[in-house]
Amino acid sequence: MKKVVEIIDPTLPFSEITVDGKVYKMCFTYEALAAAEDAMLAKGHEVNILVPMLRRTFSSVRTLFSVGLYTFHPELDPAVTKLWVTSENLLQVLEAIDSAWSKSMPDSKPADPPQPEE
Fold first, then answer.
1. What is the pLDDT of residue 12?
2. Is residue 40 part of a domain?
3. 17 close to 93: Cβ distance less than 8 angstroms
4. 27: exposed, middle or buried (C-beta count within 10 Å: 0-12, 13-18, 19+)?
5. How many domains does the chain have?
6. How much is the average pLDDT of 87-116?
7. Sequence-distant (≥ 6) Cβ neighbours of residue 59 within 8 angstroms
8. Is 87 exposed, middle or buried (0-12, 13-18, 19+ CB in 10 A)?
9. 116, part of any domain
10. What is the three-class DSSP state of 68?
């Protein structure tokens, strides 16, 4: 079976992180978040990717890191990229996750808030 080549949108916002001397782009798209949830649900895990952004554990940071890499690097194995998060780079990973999440999510404040009807 042929592998479908995914076209990566180069205009997506991203943050960079360097792991073992190689630079990777992190981006949180709804597609990547949904794909990660679907994969975990298929393995029998009860999961909601939005929860780790509010209440983080070491395990959830590793998951968020892997999901963040997926958009620009779908060829990477999440089981492997989770292992890239270590005590030595944890702060760098957290900063990259926060930066990529902020750049990827829509602004929660509308430019022109709706006005009450008179």
1. 87
2. yes
3. yes
4. buried
5. 1
6. 82
7. none
8. exposed
9. no
10. helix
Q: Evaluate whether residue 75 is within a structural domain.
A: yes
Give which of 64, 40, 67, 44 is closest to 54, Cα–Cα: 64
The pTM (predicted TM-score) of the whole model is 0.75
State in Å, rounded, how far the first CA of the chain is from the last one. 61
Please state, in angstroms and rounded to a whole number, the distance separating the CA atoms of residues 38 and 79.
15
* Residue 115 placed within a domain: no
Range of the domain at 61: 15-104
Q: How does pLDDT run across 42-77, given as a tens digit for each residue?
A: 877 666 777 777 778 888 888 889 888 988 988 888
Return the structure tokens found at 115. 């006005």
Q: How many CA atoms lie within 13 A of 110 on its CB side?
A: 4
Instruction: Locate 102 and state its tokens.
Output: 């902020």
Q: Are the C-beta atoms of residues 9 and 51 closer than 8 Å to each other? A: no
In Å, how far are 36, 39, 70, 79 from 106, measured between CA atoms? 20, 24, 19, 28
